[in-house]
Design a protein that fits this description.
elongated
Amino acid sequence: MFKSPTYKESHRRSVTRSTVWRIIGILFLALITYIFTQSWITTTLVTIAHHSISIVGYYLHERFWLHIKWLKYSKYKPFARVFVYEVIYGNLILGTISFIFTGNFIVATAVTLTYICNKYWMFYLYDWIWNKVKWGTTGTIVYAYVAFDLFHIGHLKALEQAKALGDYLIVGVITDEGIEAYKRQPIQSLDERMKLVAGLGCVDKVIEQKALDPTEELKKIQPDILVHGDDWNKNFPGASYMRSIGKQVILTKYYHGQSTTKIIDRIRNECIYTKIQRH
């Protein structure tokens, strides 16, 4: 599954991504344009004009998507990024430039559609590759995982402590199946629980965690710190893997004043008391 970046990106990294992508684009556009026009002069003019405008556009596009909140935690964000840049922006710019230099609507359309359609999957692949490369990333990445079934102050305190340990907090929300494997069925759905976590100001990114043990997710993200409440011992799930790769494992102070179990028990007791009173 393709995911949006799990890090803060430096300006140097953004510039590098923009430059490398532009080189790929220049070579590919030149090839496409020459195939349809058979003219090196037209090919040169279209390629230079298009990429001179687009190099600035791509950099601004990358910075824009790092800060925009729309679709911030959605798995569809990569699709949206590609659509905005390659389909909307790309079609308008390249279509106009191609028509200006060729004077032929059919040729301009052929160049534009061939280029854009192929760049769509190329951009998606390029984005995925860069998400695997941590060069140019900044800040300390902290990973925490929760069931987050019935939101209470204990959850908030735990995640605020986790955020205070680094610059970027990623929270894994355990799936319904993952929770049922070690305790009761969750009251709220995974989608509802993820949206609740995403709404917290201390959380930078939310992902789905398939089981209680987060090792599979840790291998993909490679965080600097893994945190868990001190209601577990230091060998809580995921800790062994983090230590094996030389990363930090930190226990945060568990809040004993409230818990999901306490909330459920209180509601159950209140219902029983009310029923007795009525009778």
